[in-house]
Specification:
5-stranded parallel β-sheet
Length: 266
């Protein structure tokens, strides 16, 4: 169960929820939070296609897992096409349901001319024992499409050592897109594939939860291809990416391979 560092840690005598952007383990009893009172759009509009714009304006919602993504995505976009302009903004605040109750967060989406919005922070139970509402995610998607913004769901990568979490979180977000169409960046599936292909490559930070510099770049390449529809394997080398040219190219090839079999915006 993932919680933002922005939330306070909650404790009770016999039940408690792990906080501070952590995930539950087998010793924690998971309890459901109250259902979000979030309206869902009446209409399921098609996904706006902003892949070929010359002025990318990208908004990210989420918790600590979106750290560095704004910077890296912008770098990749500019490296692929120096003639475009890119503006990115990140809005923290934890879960999508929390931000939906925040007037400033909602106004940030509604009162600006965005081309893409990346949505991270859907609550989920790592053990699968609790089913959390996806109403907020579907509401954000509907709001975005109404304004001509391309919505992109961001299912987190698996924590270190997990062989099932990437698929689990992907499937949860896939179910959301089946009710409210949205692009879905297959982050967990790409990470699973890379870890399987090169198990000695470390993608995680020391906490085993967040991405390190290599993992952050891998995730950003997934978003690059999701946003533009252009193969990540054709990206030029980024000298400041903290990985070798050979490794960047290999990671990009795996990104393009998985996205070819799991088209994000189909």
């Amino acid at each position: 169960m993932q919680y933002s560092h922005a939330l306070a840690c909650l404790f009770a005598a016999s039940l408690f929820i792990q906080g501070c952007n952590g995930k539950s383990d087998s010793t924690i009893v998971e309890v459901s939070l109250p259902e979000e009172k979030a309206p869902i759009g009446e209409h399921n509009l098609p996904i706006p296609d902003n892949s070929a714009v010359s002025d990318f304006r990208i908004l990210l919602y989420g918790n600590s897992h979106i750290a560095r993504q704004n910077e890296l995505i912008s770098t990749l976009l500019r490296s692929a096409n120096p003639n475009i302009t890119v503006y990115g903004e990140s809005f923290g605040g934890g879960y999508l349901s929390d931000n939906l109750q925040n007037p400033t967060a909602v106004a940030t989406l509604e009162e600006n001319d965005w081309t893409h919005v990346i949505l991270q922070g859907q609550k989920y139970s790592q053990s699968g024992s609790v089913e959390y509402s996806t109403a907020a995610a579907k509401t954000w998607i509907a709001k975005a499409k109404t304004q001509g913004i391309t919505p992109i769901l961001f299912p987190e990568h698996p924590q270190k050592g997990s062989t099932t979490e990437g698929q689990q979180v992907h499937d949860l977000h896939l179910a959301i897109t089946q009710q409210q169409t949205s692009c879905l960046a297959p982050v967990g599936l790409v990470w699973d594939h890379v870890i399987k292909q090169q198990p000695d490559l470390n993608l995680h930070a020391a906490d085993g939860n967040h991405a390190n510099e290599t993992g952050s770049l891998l995730t950003a390449m997934i978003f690059y291809e999701t946003i533009t529809g252009q193969p990540a394997e054709l990206l030029p080398y980024i000298p400041d990416s903290f990985v070798s040219q050979d490794l960047q190219y290999q990671l990009a090839k795996w990104v393009t391979w998985i996205l070819a079999t799991h088209p994000p915006c189909s």
